[in-house]
């Protein structure tokens, strides 16, 4: 069964008041994400990966020794990353639930310190990639960053929050100001209820 582009869980203009414009979502979701889905369907056709789950494809095609990943992985991982990204944001959910706030404080000292370190990870990712809040197999929380489309599935981690720091994610609204984009993402776009549900 072919992969399909998931609908946004909100209207294209639902995040505009929070700093992500309708135009950004039209380009990012409708064009960039769709391109990953279309290319993935093309690449897996007739291969051992046809009919496999998205997660199985990501884990099965990731090459930890490669500098550049293969095309199937790149498109599968970016499809997965973006499907999570849309759900991790929303027009509601600005208050951090108590259980998540407690977990962040335990892991990083405070919620503010978590936000600082998460932003630093995103700003410090050279070139294209992602910043992540993950839960490790032992239950501990960590902040990571990954290049290009690499994601926590590759390392047996659970993605609690991810921020796309490819330029197409923020250039329309923030030009080259990645630090401002990350600050705005954490303060005005994240649906913390969704993040807490992943704990």
Description:
There is one protein chain. The chain has 199 residues and is mainly alpha-helical. The protein has helices spanning 22-44, 54-61, 71-88, 98-108, 111-124, 171-174, 178-189, 192-197, and strands at residues 129-135, 141-147, 158-164. The longest helix is centred in the N-terminal third of the chain and has 23 residues, at 22-44. It is globular. The model has no long low-confidence stretch (mean pLDDT 98). The protein has a three-stranded antiparallel beta sheet with strand order 2-1-3. Helix content is 48%, strand content 11%. The protein has eight helices and three strands.
Give the count of helical stretches: 8
Helical/strand content category: mainly alpha
Indicate the overall shape: globular
Order of helices and strands: HHHHHEEEHHH
Please describe the biggest sheet, giving its number of strands, its sense, and whether it closes into a barrel. 3 strands, antiparallel
DSSP strand content: 5-15%
Physical arrangement of strands within the biggest beta sheet: 2-1-3
The gyration radius over C-alpha positions equals: 16 Å
Low-confidence stretches: none
Percentage of residues in helical conformation: 40-55%
Write the topology of this structure.
Elements: H1 22-44, H2 54-61, H3 71-88, H4 98-108, H5 111-124, E1 129-135, E2 141-147, E3 158-164, H6 171-174, H7 178-189, H8 192-197
């Amino acid at each position: 069964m072919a992969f399909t582009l998931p609908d946004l869980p909100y209207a294209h203009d639902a995040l505009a008041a929070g700093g992500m414009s309708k135009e950004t979502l039209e380009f990012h979701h409708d064009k960039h994400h769709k391109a990953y889905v279309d290319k993935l369907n093309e690449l897996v056709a007739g291969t051992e990966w046809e009919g496999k789950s998205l997660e199985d494809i990501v884990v099965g095609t990731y090459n930890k020794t490669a500098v550049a990943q293969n095309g199937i992985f790149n498109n599968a991982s970016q499809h997965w990353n973006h499907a999570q990204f849309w759900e991790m944001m929303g027009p509601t959910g600005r208050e951090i639930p108590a259980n998540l706030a407690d977990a962040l404080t335990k892991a990083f000292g405070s919620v503010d310190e978590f936000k600082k370190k998460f932003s630093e990870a995103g700003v410090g990712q050279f070139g294209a990639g992602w910043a992540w809040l993950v839960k490790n197999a032992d239950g501990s929380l960590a902040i990571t960053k990954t290049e290009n489309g690499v994601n926590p599935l590759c390392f047996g981690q659970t993605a609690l929050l991810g921020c796309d720091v490819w330029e197409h994610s923020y250039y329309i609204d923030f030009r080259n100001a990645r630090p401002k984009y990350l600050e705005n993402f954490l303060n005005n776009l994240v649906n913390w209820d969704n993040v807490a549900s992943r704990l």
